[in-house]
Amino acid sequence: xxxxxxxxxxKIKQTSERIKSLIxxxxxxxxxxxxxxxxxYLTLPLSTTKxxxxxxxxxxxIITYLNKSGYELGLIDKVYLRFLGYPQSGWIDIKENxxxxxxxxxxxxxxxxxxxxxxxxxxxTSYVFLNDISKKMNLSRKNLQKVYDKYAYKxxxxxxxxTYSLPYGMKEDHLLFYLFSTTNKQYExxxxxxxxxxDKKRWYYYITLASVIQKEAANSDEMPTVSSVIHNRLxxxxxxxxxxxxxxxxxxxxKITSQRIKEDNSSxxxxxxxxxxxxxxxxxxxxxxxxxxxxxxxxYLYFVKNExxxxxxxxxxxxxxxxxxxxxxxxxxxxxxxAKEKKQEIQKKKSNSKTKESPKxxxxxxxxxxxxxxxxxxxxxxxxxx
Length: 386
Hints:
Layout: H1 2-42, E1 45-47, E2 51-54, H2 59-68, H3 75-84, E3 90-93, E4 98-100, H4 101-110, E5 115-119, H5 126-136, H6 141-151, E6 163-167, H7 172-195, H8 200-216, H9 223-236, H10 258-263, H11 286-293, E7 302-305, E8 312-315, H12 318-356, H13 371-385
Subcellular location: Cell membrane
Protein name: Endolytic murein transglycosylase
Family: Belongs to the transglycosylase MltG family.
């Protein structure tokens, strides 16, 4: 009996081990099948735009949003997405149009925001810059102006001339808040370094002065000297009488005429008004700000553009200034004369080359025959027919 019991127990043990191994095999088989199905599912192709918008919210709400956008994501995607981490929010640069589901889900958790570089050129007005932003960022020009007018401290000079990397898809208000706050932080930092404080009213006086320098100076090297002329004229109570102050807003690139000077009654017209304009004329560079605060030490009161080199000729007296203007007129006249002579010389060379060319000979495919011989031969043929 004991032997039989041992045999029975051994059989039971063997059977249970077989069952366990079968169950383990089935589980392993199921896992493998499930893994293959998941891998197959995640390698399915998916098409997308290179830049997509992901709203803020839970993973479930993001999956729902993407499904509504036509991405057809399911339970496996949701689990895999949770395994990868949390999706980015905002406008995301996927950089590809065609990829697998696994790659797509990985990209929306790791890709950086889609950015666009927008440059505000020194000397450019906010009016032109808002036009540029509207076109490049696909935003409403009307809404941009509305937000700008509501939150800007001054009509211009509120945004420092620089290149800004802006996330694609930003709304008008968020975009301008970002530009205003970024500039304000820089203004505050520079002011604290120079003056030990940030007095906004005082600071924008220098921004206005810097904007005049920005419009008038031929280059950054000239800026401190141009600044000294403005400072000297302001101290003496003289009108600035500078064309650049009338290149504000939409007139940024319009040539200033005597008629415009007569008709413009704004504070920007420094031919009519003393002192600086009420608002900065344009965006300014750091060089212009430094020049406004630290002008060169000179006695100059006038400057005029030198037609020879494109820079400015500076003078201390009106008499010297008039002499520089007259010199410029002579230079301008001579330059025009030389240009005219050069043009005439080119035309003369062209006409000479035409006369030197020999007349083209007529080319004949067949030898040219004598017309009289032709008439005789025709007549003889006619006689033969008769």
